[in-house]
Design a protein that fits this description.
The structure holds two protein chains of two kinds. By secondary structure, chain A is α+β, with helices and mostly antiparallel strands. Chain A contains 17 helices and 24 strands. Among the domains of chain A are: 270-374, Sandwich (Immunoglobulin-like); 378-515, Sandwich (Immunoglobulin-like), CATH 2.60.40; 575-641. In chain A, strand 9 and strand 10 form a beta hairpin. The radius of gyration of chain A is 54 Å and the shape is elongated. Chain B is α+β, with helices and mostly antiparallel strands. Chain B has two domains: 21-275, Rossmann fold (3-Layer(aba) Sandwich); 280-386, Sandwich (Immunoglobulin-like). Helices cover 23% and strands 32% of the residues of chain B. Chain B has helices at residues 2-17, 30-34, 36-44, 88-96, 111-119, 159-162, 241-245, 263-274, 401-423, 427-432, and strands spanning 20-26, 47-53, 62-63, 66-67, 71-75, 100-104, 122-124, 130-132, 148-150, 170-172, 177-179, 186-191, 197-199, 211-212, 217-223, 229-233, 248-249, 257-258, 281-290, 300-301, 305-316, 319-322, 329-334, 336-342, 344-346, 349-355, 361-369, 377-386. In chain B, a hairpin with a 1-residue loop joins strand 23 and strand 24 (336-342). In chain B, helix 4 runs parallel beside helix 5. The N and C termini of chain B lie far apart (131 Å). Classes of the chains: A alpha+beta, B alpha+beta. At the A-B interface, helix 1, strand 19, strand 20, helix 15 and helix 16 of A face helix 2, helix 3, helix 7, strand 24 and helix 9 of B. Chain A: It is found in: Endoplasmic reticulum membrane. Chain A: Residues 27-261 form the Ribophorin II N-terminal domain. Chain A: Residues 382-509 form the Ribophorin II third domain.
Chain lengths: 642, 433
């Protein structure tokens, strides 16, 4: 339950006008978490975080693990020439106990640093380190140097450091001016939403100031000039930052809060709800924790609930009743809230605290508010399910359904009908009709799991009625997808203990077909369908036998020619054995072979080249051959004539 | 000591690649601490974070025409008006310029956030509303049932976006959204359960709620066409240290208790995705050539067998490593795709072999890889495909043999006839004479 209260912090920034008591505390869980933050700082990377981790654990009262390792680390990391480093180291060793720094070498550095013109931070480091190491400090000298330094530096950080310095000086030093500066410093703090008080949004600075102010007040034995409500606002701010994760911030939270939990002047009283926010017949007690900001006990107290008011209508159900102390835990107090016969609703309970032994330190004793809610169990009754014809031609068929059963009959509706459902929600506590925040009718397509949700509305008598025009809603809600739908009634409310989703019936819905043109949207993120290219089919050719036959046929005339010639007794007996005759016929044959080669492989230009050579030769040879044949004929003719 | 220097150097080298300049806009600086685990994780991953309050008057995303930041985190739900030069148009310009934005809202949502969301196709519900689920709320709820326990099964099934480890439920408290159904780029990263709805917790449900059932978006994401990523969550607390470490248990009897919510794993995975540490692809060397060759020709001829390969790499922990998938497709496109084939992965490359279509023209090899959670990979290479030259057609067709034979027989005839015609001797006549 601690988490429930801590969650409040997040929205708390906007919560305005709450009574001024812290709304949360640093619970055991929170302390354990911060402890883990300190422990996780190991292995240390720098002296400052080692110092925060060690001091934080010490403040939380936790065991510091590996004391010797820590001591060795601090000793190895310290720089004896730097007051700042010496401050961190000496604070850490002091917290560790049996761990000694070399005080002689530190002393030289530190004593030398107190001189004219020293700035406030150095002075703070020097004085703190000297005190931590148990070395003497000349208080008057420090006060003078501090007064000088503050003249040129009036920042809040320096002012807060001055508080810490003054708190460490001897009692007789005159630090009145510094003590009075607390008032001026507080005046510079920023207030957020009338709830928080902080410096420049800086957790470290705020915490540092708070610690310093109360430290100096304790030193001076005078109440610091911080108003009580300011003190509470500082506490609120520190508590609002309790989810920090770094060792420094965690230390700031712990240091500030432990100061506010334990000082001589102001201890804010925190009243936080310890039990669940929900109050029901099973768990009727409201348990609150009354503690300081570190959830520590405050001694014997009397806690009273001044009033309890219902948020909705302002009805006051309780006044001035005392809470019983829990015998096991002296910070817990209990109130049986249902004794008041409070009905369901959200309630704000206001508490006040008085200490049995008056203690002026306790502040914020009244006005603490805690919220609870009283929940109830709801029952659903008089459930009627009907399918009415739109034209009222036939009386509607009404089916009564009992929670939590599902109606046995499958209902089938089409677009000429209205689906009507009526039901009543009853508060089981007093059996009265009530309304719920959520009273939805959910129709789920059993196949596609698509959900369509409608809101059922209640009339003035809290009777819920849900009406669905199946035809008209087809396209808009159902995508015209006919099929089997599961019909559920979902009832829920912040004040209902038993919210439910009840499957009332299965519905067969039929929508007009023609409108069923819902196109599925293409999914951008899927692999797309593969495409194989369709190659064009080659044209069909005649079978090979046909062409073979015709090839044979076209070769036939040559054979016939040769056959006839042989029969006729063809010869070439006149062939002259001359060069021209032989070369002419070879040339002619070569030209024909060249044509064949052109067909098979040569290109036109090569062919023409060869043809030119062959053609010329053949032409010349042919010319002479024909000339010689002509001459022969002429001679033959002449000899005949003679 | 030397090895430490080396490690630092290595870390610096890796760091150059990872992260980026990031502007974080906050409602108030306390958010920096209440969400410190989230921010620390970003810083550890090499992001250079600059924290500003959202109404800081010096805000600017662009200076001298250049973007000052690569990423933007807006953890300022309640801002009424951004400071400086920042407004909705500057933010959309930032997205158009490739910047990534992570926006967390809450029930205190202000107008600028709503405007930015509607620019991106996400509609937030009104201020003061909250997502309510009376059946799935956490034990630590404060009474209004607004601390929702979101089941991991309502997460989108994309490991790049929501991570692989998702068994613990996610705590959510904040405002609901709905996605614009006309915007196909909006992804429903986390939806409410079917009993959830979004309304004013304190008011009677008098009108139909903005979002009901599974339409209620708790976390929505958008990857724009330029690969800029934008994530909207309705809950700022989802990223808080408190929710990261909180235990989760539904407030119904017998519900399983988880000691640690799934918020941290989810929020970190989401931030890895939105800031481009996850699901980032790039295309590398593209090679294409005829089968059996090495170099691309000046032009392909129709019907040739070709081989195409592309190197695709994925960014993993700041390094580019070969991408592994079996659904990368290659298209061969002339206006419309003529061929679409799935590529095979071979040694860091994706390879496809196919036969060019019998259509000539100017084509593109196109790899258009668009998957949920990955950046859009788009690579085109233009090539021309020409028809056959006259010598490339078929030469000796069986059906034409009669023509060949007749031509050659004519030539043979010519040769023989010339021989006979010129040299024939009519012996018998001579003798009788």
């Amino acid at each position: 339950m601690t988490r429930g209260t801590t969650l409040l912090v997040f929205f708390a920034l906007t919560v305005v006008g709450q009574a001024l008591t812290p709304t949360t505390v640093l619970t055991g869980v929170d302390q354990a978490r911060l402890k883990a933050v300190f422990e996780n700082a190991r292995p240390f990377t720098d002296l400052a975080s080692a110092h925060y981790s060690i001091l934080g654990l010490k403040l939380l009262g936790a065991q510091i693990p590996n004391t010797q390792d820590n001591c060795n680390y601090v000793k190895s990391a310290v720089d004896y020439q730097s007051p700042e480093s010496l401050y961190y180291a000496s604070s850490a060793t002091k917290a560790l106990g049996n761990c000694q720094l070399s005080s002689s070498s530190a002393q030289n550095t530190l004593q030398a640093a107190i001189k004219d013109g020293v700035d406030v931070p150095t002075l703070f480091f020097v004085v703190s380190a000297l005190i931590n190491l148990g070395l003497p400090v000349n208080s008057n000298e420090v006060v003078n140097a501090l007064t000088e330094a503050l003249k040129t530096d009036d920042s809040i950080l320096s002012g807060s450091m001055a508080l810490h310095i003054a708190a460490q000086l001897s009692k007789d030093a005159d630090v009145k001016v510094i003590f009075e500066s607390i008032e001026d410093l507080v005046a510079q703090a920023d207030e957020v939403g009338e709830k928080y008080l902080q410096f420049e949004g800086d957790l470290g600075l705020t915490s540092f100031f708070v610690v310093g102010a109360y430290r100096l007040a304790g030193h001076q034995n005078k109440a610091p000039l911080i108003m009580e409500d300011q003190s509470v606002k500082f506490a609120n701010y520190l508590l609002s930052r309790k989810h920090v994760q770094s060792p420094k911030n965690a230390y700031d939270v712990v240091a500030g809060l432990s100061t506010l939990a334990n000082n001589k002047y102001h201890i804010p009283v925190c009243i936080t709800r310890q039990s669940s926010m929900t109050v029901s017949s099973v768990q009727s007690k409201v348990q609150v924790r009354v503690s300081n900001v570190m959830s520590g006990a405050l001694g014997k107290l009397t806690v009273k609930a001044d009033s309890a008011e219902r948020k909705e209508d302002g009805a006051v159900v309780l006044s001035n009743s005392a809470l019983a102390a829990n015998p096991r835990d002296n910070t817990l107090y209990e109130l049986d809230f249902l004794k008041t016969k409070a009905g369901r609703g959200f309630y704000t309970i206001e508490f006040s605290v008085t200490a049995d032994k008056p203690d002026s330190r306790l502040i914020g004793l009244s006005g603490a508010q805690v919220e609870v809610k009283v929940v109830t169990t709801v029952s659903v009754e008089e459930v009627e399910l009907a399918l009415e014809d739109k034209d009222q031609s036939t009386p509607p068929r009404v089916t009564k359904v009992q929670y939590p059963q599902k109606t046995g009959s499958n209902l089938a509706g089409d677009h000429h009908q209205n689906l009507v459902m009526k039901f009543l929600l009853k508060d089981k506590a007093d059996n009265s009709a009530m309304e719920a925040h959520q009273a939805f009718v959910r129709l789920t397509n059993k196949r596609t799991k698509q959900e369509v949700i409608f809101v059922a509305e209640a009339d003035d008598d809290h009777l819920y009625k849900f009406e669905l025009d199946i035809g008209a809603s087809a396209k808009e809600h159902f995508n015209s997808l006919s099929g089997l739908y599961a019909m559920d009634l979902v009832v829920g409310d912040a004040l209902i203990q038993n919210p439910f989703a009840w499957n009332v019936a299965d519905l067969q819905l039929k929508f007009p077909e023609d409108s069923a043109t819902s196109e599925e949207k293409p999914n951008l993120y899927q692999p797309r369908e593969e495409i194989q290219h369709m190659f064009r089919e080659p044209e069909k050719r005649p079978p090979a036998t046909v062409s073979t036959t015709f090839t044979a046929l076209v070769l036939l005339p040559v054979l016939i020619l040769l056959g006839l010639w042989i029969k006729l007794g063809v010869n070439i007996a006149n062939f002259p054995l001359s060069l021209s005759a032989i070369s002419f016929h070879i040339g002619l044959g070569s030209i024909l072979v060249l044509y064949y080669l052109f067909f098979v492989q040569l290109n036109m230009f090569d062919t023409l080249k060869y043809l030119a050579i062959l053609g010329t030769l053949t032409f010349l040879a042919g010319n002479r051959l024909l000339g010689s044949i002509a001459n022969k004929r002429k001679q033959l003719l002449r000899s005949r004539l003679r | 000591m030397a090895s430490r220097v080396l490690i630092v150097l290595l870390a610096a080298l890796v760091g150059v690649h990872a992260g980026g300049r990031t502007l974080v806009l906050l409602d108030n600086l306390a958010i920096k601490e209440s969400h410190s685990v989230f921010f620390k994780s970003l810083a550890d991953r090499g992001f250079d974070l600059t924290f500003k309050t959202a109404d800081d008057s010096s805000l600017a995303l662009i200076k001298y025409g250049e973007f000052l930041f690569e990423h933007l985190i807006i953890f300022a739900p309640s801002v009424e008006e951004f400071g400086g030069n920042l407004d909705t148009s500057a933010l959309t310009e930032f997205i158009d310029g490739g910047g990534n934005i992570l926006v967390a809202a809450s029930s205190e949502i202000g107008e600028p956030i709503r405007e930015l969301a509607s620019e991106c196709g996400v509609e937030f519900d009104e201020e003061k509303t909250a997502v309510i689920d009376h059946l799935n709320y956490d034990l630590a709820d404060e009474g209004q049932h607004t601390l929702i326990v979101a089941d991991p099964e309502n997460l989108i099934d994309v490991k790049n976006i929501v991570g692989t480890k998702r068994d613990a439920p996610i705590l959510f408290r904040g405002v609901g959204m709905v996605a614009d159904t006309d915007n196909p780029l909006v992804l429903d990263v986390l939806t409410g359960s079917s009993t959830s709805y979004s309304f004013y917790p304190d008011e009677k449900v008098s009108e139909y709620p903005h979002a009901v059932g599974k339409n209620t978006l708790l976390v929505a994401a958008l990857q724009a066409r330029n690969n800029a990523r934008v994530v909207f969550t309705g809950s700022l607390e989802l990223f808080s240290d408190q929710f990261f470490t909180a235990a989760v248990q539904k407030a119904i009897a017998g519900a399983q208790k988880h000691d640690k919510s799934g918020n941290e794993a989810f929020a970190l995975a989401l931030s890895r995705w939105v800031f481009k540490e996850e699901g980032v692809l790039r295309g590398g060397v593209v090679k294409h050539h005829r089968k059996g060759e090495q170099e691309p020709p000046t032009a392909y001829t129709v019907m040739e067998e070709v081989v195409y390969s592309i190197v695709i790499e994925q960014l993993v922990n700041g390094k580019w490593v070969p991408f592994d998938a079996n659904d990368v497709q290659l298209e061969f496109v002339r206006i419309d795709p003529f061929v679409r084939t799935t590529m095979q992965r071979k040694g860091g490359k994706f390879v496809a072999e196919f036969k060019l279509p019998d259509v000539y023209g100017v084509f593109q090899y196109r790899v258009d890889y668009n998957r949920l959670g990955y950046t859009h990979l788009f690579s085109t290479t233009q090539v021309s495909v020409r028809p056959f030259t006259h010598t490339q057609y078929e030469r000796f067709i069986a059906a034409a043999y009669p023509y060949y034979a007749s031509a050659f027989s004519m030539m043979f005839g010519l040769f023989v006839f010339s021989l006979v015609f010129l040299h024939h001797r009519e012996d018998t006549k001579e003798k009788t004479e």
